[in-house]
Amino acid sequence: MSGSGMRSAAHGLLPTDTTEDVRTRGAGVSTQVAVLPVGSFEQHGAYLPLATDTLVACAVAREIAAAYPVHLLPPVTISCSHEHAAWPGTVSISSVTLHAVVRDIAASLRRSGVEALVVVNGHGGNYVLGNVVQETSARGERMALFPAAEDWEAARVEAGVVTSLLTDMHAGEIETSILLHTDPECVRSGYETSDFVADDRRHLLTLGMSGYTDSGVIGRPSLGSAEKGKALLESLAASFGTYFSALTGE
Fold it and tell me: Nearest Cα to 230, choosing from 22, 62, 42?
């Protein structure tokens, strides 16, 4: 299955569709599906930008939009990054606010005839997104959260990422690889020597990231490569097929 031939290529973080592009795509499908990237604005060590999670979420969403007839939305760029508050530049909103934003976007889409929403989450601390999807689905409305841990694990294996998902917690091999592929100009020197492991993080919600790392990094960014980043995104796009079918019945 491929995306609509009428789709305008996304440029940077923002889709360039016109309203006629959206109308044409909607006329060609039985169930309209929108894709909402949700990132964050938080520290990612000294070598990745504060917008890393947004860049990753947008990269995943663009891969999906290139393969499926979905309505690509602009990203939510600030979310729940409270565990990173010890580092300059980090900005957060409350989980209540993020819940309301996603809920309102979904309601607006339904009013315009887009029945289903996929939330592409780029930040592990956005726990509330799972609640939004659960509550929405229980009301009989169509929503999904992507990628799941299983999708990331499959992508990790297929891409040859060495670091486990437990160890690759923040600014590690996966995130560095994706940005080396999609936004290499945003990756600064230093990732080659910034590896740091802290697998036991049982008090993370109490202590925050600063309780476990001085640099803000937990993972092995030195193992990152553009080739792995490309393979990760390709695997995630393939995994999305089951989500599209679940939402559309196709």
Answer: 62
